[in-house]
Specification:
Layout (H helix, E strand, L loop, with lengths): L8 E6 L4 H15 L3 E8 L15 H15 L4 E7 L8 H14 L3 E5 L13 H17 L7 H5 L10 E5 L6 E4 L4 H9 L2 H4 L5 H16 L7 E8 L2
Parallel strand pairs: 1-2, 1-4, 2-3, 4-5
Antiparallel strand pairs: 5-7, 6-7
Bound molecules: zinc ion (ZN).
Zinc ion binds next to loops.
Length: 239
């Protein structure tokens, strides 16, 4: 694994607003406290989400962007990028790989956090098709696209974006996590970030207890002491 001292920049690539917060808000808050620069890339605006939806869902994309900006602020992230793909219709494509490659070359992250691209048969919730498509395209963008100057050559020729190698990827939502981050000290910030997604969670009864319970279960899985909270990842070396 990359030593902490070699992680200066992190890029989190998510399918929808709120995914980054469910997956890694606590970990991101801890990165921020260490002075790590974190950037969020949201592939969709989450315009097919929400509780009180109307069929046209007008205004939902704007609302969810605003909620994501507020959530990011709770964990110290102010650099957010939105690709505005249609929610619920993301498929793995060269176009999406190029869009993610562009941001990797702009941000030059040491570490990328994204969705696990495989379906989780133990727990289906993280395996939304948009998540799997974004996770797969992000891994493809990390290896080989972003590091290969001949991949999407127009990024270099027209935009001056040099090849870049992100050395590690942490995947969320998979069935085989192998790295756990103790987020006990920032559990309130994780919760605040998640509760910023008002359109998604305000109607959920007992939401705070649900999140704390999930975070405690991760800590138990990690073998941390009782009363601790954690987030879990599958680490993939990509150097
Ligand atoms: Zn999602």
């Amino acid at each position: 694994m990359l030593p902490e001292s070699e992680i200066d920049r992190v890029l989190v690539v998510s399918a929808h607003p709120d995914d980054a917060d469910f997956g890694s808000a606590g970990t991101v808050a801890l990165f921020g406290e260490r002075g790590v620069k974190v950037t969020y890339l949201m592939v969709t605006d989450g315009d097919a989400g929400g509780n009180e939806r109307t069929l046209d869902n007008s205004g939902m994309a704007e609302l969810r962007r605003a909620e994501q900006i507020a959530a990011a602020k709770c964990v110290g992230v102010t650099d957010l990028r939105f690709l505005a793909y249609p929610d619920g219709a993301v498929v793995a494509s060269l176009e999406l790989r190029k869009a993610i490659t562009r941001v990797i070359r702009q941000v030059r992250p040491d570490l990328v956090i994204t969705h696990h691209p495989d379906r989780n048969y133990q727990f289906i919730a993280p395996s939304h098709p948009d998540h799997r498509a974004v996770g797969g395209c992000t891994l493809d963008a990390v290896y080989p696209d972003a590091r290969n100057p001949y991949a999407f050559p127009e990024l270099l020729l027209e935009e001056g974006l040099e090849a870049w190698t992100a050395r590690e990827v942490w995947l969320v939502g998979g069935s085989t996590p192998n790295h756990y981050v103790d987020i006990t000290d920032v559990i309130d910030r994780r919760l605040a970030a998640l509760q910023s997604h008002v359109s998604q969670v305000a109607h959920v009864e007992g939401f705070a207890d649900f999140i704390k319970g999930r975070s405690a279960a991760w800590a138990e899985r990690a073998g941390f002491a009782e009363g601790r909270y954690a987030e879990g990842f599958q680490v993939v070396a990509t150097a």
